[in-house]
UniProtKB/TrEMBL annotation:
GO terms for molecular function: pyridoxal phosphate binding; transaminase activity. Pfam families: Aminotran_1_2 (PF00155). Its cofactor is pyridoxal 5'-phosphate. The keyword Signal does not apply. Residues 51-387 form the Aminotransferase class I/classII large domain. Keywords: Aminotransferase, Transferase. The keyword Transferase applies. It comes from Pelagicoccus mobilis. This is Aminotransferase class I/II-fold pyridoxal phosphate-dependent enzyme. InterPro entries: Aminotransferase_I/II_large (IPR004839), AON_synthase_class-II (IPR050087), PyrdxlP-dep_Trfase (IPR015424), PyrdxlP-dep_Trfase_major (IPR015421), PyrdxlP-dep_Trfase_small (IPR015422).
Length: 399
C-alpha cells in the first residue's frame, strides 16, 4: 500500500521531469555551479579542501569584511533582532529602512528611494512599478533576467533593440505611435559583458520621443561616478534618468536592492509594485551593512582607486595574451572562448591553478560568445595577482 503511494507519486509528470532533465544531469556531472565554499578569508575561498583566489565576485570594492561594515551588522542584529517579519507595506517598516533610503537617495542625487530585500525584486519593480498594459517597454537585448521578468509581469508590450546600439533604438522608436507611453530599460554596466551603457545617446532619444528611462545600475554603483555614485553620475545625466535601480549585493557588500527617483515616482511604485507590498522588508543587519558600506565608499576613496588600478593591471595581462574580453571597459571582464567546450577547459585550467571563475554558455550568452566571467576586486592583493597571472597564462597557453 505504502509502496504504491510512493510509486504513483513519482509518476506525476512534473516529478518525472525533475528526475529526467538532461540539463540538470549535465550540470551535476560537470559540477560547475552551486559550489559551496567551506571557508573564506579575504579574497580566498576553500572548496573541497582546495584554496582558490576568488576572481568572480561582484564585491568590487571588497567591503564585505571591512571592520566598520561587520561591526554595523553585529550592532543592528543586537538592537533590532534578526528579521523584520513582514512587508514594508504592512508590519515590517523600521527606522533604519527610512535612514538607508534617505542616504541612498541623497547619494544618488534623487529625491526618494525604496529598498527591497533583493536586488532582483528591486529591478523587477523598476519595470512593474511603472509600466502597464498598453505601454511599450524598449529593452536592450542583453538585459538582466530580473528586468525581463519585470517586463513580462508588467503586461506592457516589448520592443527589443540591439545590445547597446542607440541607433537601432532610434529606428525602433521612429516606427512607434507618438502617444503610446514608453519606458526604456537599460543597464549602467552590463554584468556579463562589462560594457558601459550608452546613456548619453539613450537619454537624448528619450527626450526626443518623450520616454521614461529606467536604469539598472547594479554594477555601476561603487564603480563609476564621483565617489561611486554610478553610471548616471559618471555621465552627468542623473536628472535625465527617471529611475535608478540597483543592488546592495555588489559594492555595498550586503544583500537587497533599491529603486530611486522622484518622490512622486517612488510613492507611485510603493502603491503598485507587488515586490514590496507582498514581500518581507530587508533585515536589520543587511540594511546596516549596506549603510556602513555606503559611508565607507564616501570616506575611503582608496577602495575605488585600488579597484581601477587592479582592473587596469588585469586587463593589460589579458590584452597581452590576446584574449577576447568582449571590449569590456570595467572590472567585470569576460574572457570569450566561443564554444562551450573551450570555455569549460579554460575554466577548468584556472581552477587547477587555484583561481575561481564562472562559466557562462549559450543560451545564457549569445551563440558563439561562450565565456568565462571574471571580475576584479579592490581587495585583490599582490599575492593574489601572482596566482591569477600564472593561472591565466596557463589557461591561455592551453587554448
Ligand atoms: N541586475 C543586475 C544587472 C544584476 O547583475 C543582478 C545580480 N547579478 C541583479 C540585478 C540582481 O541583484 P541581486 O543579486 O542583488 O538580487
Amino acid at each position: 500500500m505504502i509502496r504504491n503511494f510512493f510509486q504513483s507519486k513519482s509518476r506525476n509528470p512534473i516529478a518525472e521531469r525533475c528526475d529526467k532533465d538532461n540539463f540538470t544531469k549535465l550540470r551535476q556531472k560537470y559540477d560547475l555551479y552551486y559550489r559551496i565554499a567551506e571557508s573564506q578569508s579575504g579574497t580566498r575561498i576553500t572548496i573541497d579542501g582546495k584554496e582558490l583566489v576568488m576572481l568572480a565576485s561582484n564585491e568590487y570594492l571588497g567591503l564585505s569584511q571591512h571592520p566598520k561594515v561587520v561591526e554595523a551588522g553585529k550592532k543592528a542584529l543586537e538592537k533590532w533582532g534578526s528579521g523584520t517579519m513582514g512587508a514594508r507595506s504592512a508590519n515590517g517598516g523600521r527606522g533604519f529602512h527610512r535612514e538607508l533610503e534617505e542616504e541612498l537617495a541623497e547619494f544618488l542625487g534623487k529625491e526618494a528611494c525604496h529598498v527591497f530585500a533583493a536586488g532582483y525584486l528591486a529591478c523587477m519593480a523598476s519595470i512593474t512599478g511603472f509600466a502597464q498594459r498598453g505601454d511599450i517597454v524598449l529593452a536592450d537585448k542583453n538585459l538582466h533576467s530580473s528586468l525581463w521578468d519585470g517586463i513580462r509581469l508588467s503586461m506592457a508590450s516589448v520592443e527589443r533593440f540591439s545590445h547597446n546600439k542607440p541607433a537601432h533604438l532610434a529606428s525602433v522608436l521612429e516606427q512607434l505611435e507618438a502617444e503610446t507611453p514608453k519606458l526604456i530599460s537599460v543597464e549602467g554596466i552590463y554584468s556579463m559583458e562589462g560594457h558601459i551603457g550608452a546613456l548619453p545617446e539613450i537619454c537624448e532619444l528619450a527626450e526626443r520621443y518623450n520616454c521614461f528611462v529606467s536604469l539598472d545600475d547594479a554594477h555601476g554603483l561603487g564603480v563609476l561616478g564621483n565617489q561611486g555614485r554610478g553610471t548616471a553620475n559618471h555621465f552627468g545625466l542623473t536628472d535625465k534618468i527617471d529611475i535608478i535601480a540597483g543592488s546592495l549585493s555588489k559594492s555595498l557588500a550586503s544583500t537587497g536592492g533599491f529603486v530611486a527617483g522622484s518622490k512622486a515616482c517612488i510613492e507611485y511604485m510603493r502603491t503598485h509594485c507587488k515586490q514590496s507590498i507582498f514581500s518581507a522588508a530587508i533585515s536589520p543587519s543587511q540594511a546596516a551593512c549596506a549603510r556602513a558600506a555606503l559611508k565607507v565608499m564616501q570616506e575611503e576613496p582608496e577602495w575605488n582607486q585600488k579597484l581601477w588600478e587592479n582592473t587596469r593591471r588585469y586587463k593589460a595581462l589579458l590584452d597581452e595574451l590576446g584574449l577576447d574580453t568582449w571590449e569590456s571597459e570595467t572590472p567585470a571582464i569576460p574572457i570569450v572562448l566561443g564554444t562551450r567546450e573551450k570555455a569549460y577547459y579554460f575554466w577548468k585550467h584556472l581552477w587547477e591553478k587555484g583561481v575561481f571563475s564562472i562559466i557562462s554558455t549559450a543560451p545564457g550568452v549569445p551563440p558563439g560568445k561562450d565565456l568565462v566571467r571574471t571580475a576584479i576586486s579592490a581587495r585583490h592583493t599582490e599575492e593574489d595577482f601572482q596566482i591569477i597571472e600564472a593561472a591565466i597564462r596557463y589557461a591561455s597557453s592551453k587554448r
